[in-house]
Amino acid sequence: MAAIRKGRVSLQTFSVGACITLLPCIGVLGRNFQNIWDDFWILLLLAYIVCYNGVLFVMYNVQWNQKDFYKVAVRAAFLGTVFGLGILISVSGTTWKYFGWYIVALSFFHFSEYYTTAVTNPRSLTLDSFLLDHSREYKLAAMASWLEFTIEWYIAPGLKQFHMISYVGLLIVLLGEIIRKASMFTAKTNFNHYVQYIKQDGHTLVTSGIYSYCRHPSYVGWFYWSIGTQLILFNPVCLVGYTIVSWKFFKERIYEEEIYLLNFFGEHYLDYQKKVGTGLPFISGYRGEM
């Protein structure tokens, strides 16, 4: 199946991009190579990116004429590169260490959304499954967090060295990622990145596994993942903003989605609502009566 193959392509090219982390290892070849890395590391990183993009273009556009696969490959490779650069920043020993953690988490989240969809629900797989074009608000929120980190790092770099808070943020990010992916693997073909307004053939109500603990684990995971990213960066302004905006977004999203779920599954979903909460604080969802 083409979707499954696209999943393999995304994994392979993400790995190619992530291999940028290996470039500093040229130093093991001798002192001269270490000097080359020390003096020209920016050029070497750029050369690697240009080279693999050129190879991907020739392979998928020229040799195989598979433009759809090329679109997947360049996005996954880009995310892999960001992931690799994040690792390099994380081990650089600079005050940007935690920003490295952040971009590792961010790039892996977007790649894993696509790859997990390819594995669990290939029928719904599209380029949008990367969630790179999720919404204008999502992009603005990301840029706001980068801007806040940079300004605060420049004005008061010590503010970005509250190590325990960043470690707590990392744990929350990992927990959120695990919860979200567990929901996707449990729901399988019943999971979709978008609210479904029409019941599809084969769509069943999932109440087992992680869904036995909360009705919307994918939203729970994303909510806490987003908060965790701002704790990693120790962005106090964005931490408050992300919490409020994300909570409001998921409150409205859950309310809307549950209207359709009640239409799809009737009393079965109503009974499920009575037994299991949404998983998010102070959000009860749509309370319709059958």
Structure keywords:
mainly alpha, 69% helix, globular, 9 helices, 290 residues
In short:
This protein has 290 residues and is mainly alpha-helical. 69% of the residues lie in helices and 0% in strands.
Question: What can you tell me about this protein's structure?
Answer:
The chain has helices at 2-18, 31-63, 67-90, 97-120, 136-155, 163-187, 217-233, 236-265, 267-275. With 290 residues, the protein is mainly α. Helix 1 (2-18) runs parallel beside helix 3 and helix 4 (97-120) runs antiparallel to helix 7 (217-233).
Quick one: biggest sheet?
none
> What spatial form do the alpha-carbon principal axes imply?
globular
Rg calculated over all Cα atoms: 21 Å
Structural class label: mainly alpha
Question: Which percent band covers the strand fraction?
Answer: under 5%
Share of helix, binned: 55-70%
Oligomer: single chain
Rounded mean pLDDT score: 95
Q: Count of helices?
A: 9
Distance between the termini: 41 Å
Query: What's the total number of strands?
Result: 0
Unreliable spans are: none
Compressed to H and E, one letter per element, the order equals: HHHHHHHHH
